[in-house]
Amino acid sequence: MSLTDITNKILSDANKKAENIIGDGQKELDKILAEKNQQIVNAIQIIKDRSKERALKIQEQTEFKERMLKKNILLTVKQELIDQVFETAKEKLLKLNDEEFINLMVKMLQSTDMVEDAEIITSSSKKDLIKKAIQKAGLSYKISDKNLPKGEDGFILSSKIVEVNNTIENYINTSKKEFSVEIAKRLFE
C-alpha cells in the first residue's frame, strides 16, 4: 500500500465518519425541531384555549351587565310610574271641593291622637274649612294665626310638646312608604 492509498483510505474513512456524524446530527436536529414544533403547537393550543375561556368570561360579564342595566332601567321606569300615581293623587287631593276637603280633614283629625292645648296651623285660604272640620269631628282645637307655606294644604297640629304634620304633602309621603308595594303589584302584575 502506498502512501497515496493510505491517505485515500484515511480520507475515505474520515468522510464516512463525517457523513455518519452529520447524519446522526441531522437526525438529532430533526428530533429536537420536531419536539420544539410540538411544544409550539401545544403552547399555541393553550393560548387559544385560554383566549376562548377569557372571551367566554368577557361575554358572560357583558351579558350580565346588559341584563342588570335592563333591570335598572325597568325599575327606574316603574318607580317613575309609581311616583306619577302619587303625584296624581296629590293633585286630586289639592283640588278637592270644599265638602270633600272637610270630610278628608275630619278623617285626619279623628285619626290623630288628641293633643292637649294644641292649635291647628293651616293655610290662610282653608281656615274656615278647617274650622268646619274641627266642629264636624267634635273637637275643640283653636286655629293658629300662623299659616302653612303657600301651596300647602291640610294642617299641622301643634302644641308646646308635639307637632303632628297632617299636610297633604306629608300624607302623600307617608302613603308612599305604606302603599308603594301594593301599587306596584297592581300596576305591574
From TrEMBL:
GO terms for molecular function: proton-transporting ATPase activity, rotational mechanism. Pfam families: vATP-synt_E. It comes from the Bacteria. The keyword Transport applies. The keyword Transport applies. Gene3D superfamilies: ATP synthase, E subunit, C-terminal, F1F0 ATP synthase subunit B, membrane domain. GO terms for cellular component: proton-transporting two-sector ATPase complex, catalytic domain. Keywords: Ion transport, Transport. Belongs to the V-ATPase E subunit family. This is Uncharacterized protein. It comes from Candidatus Falkowbacteria bacterium RIFOXYD2_FULL_34_120.
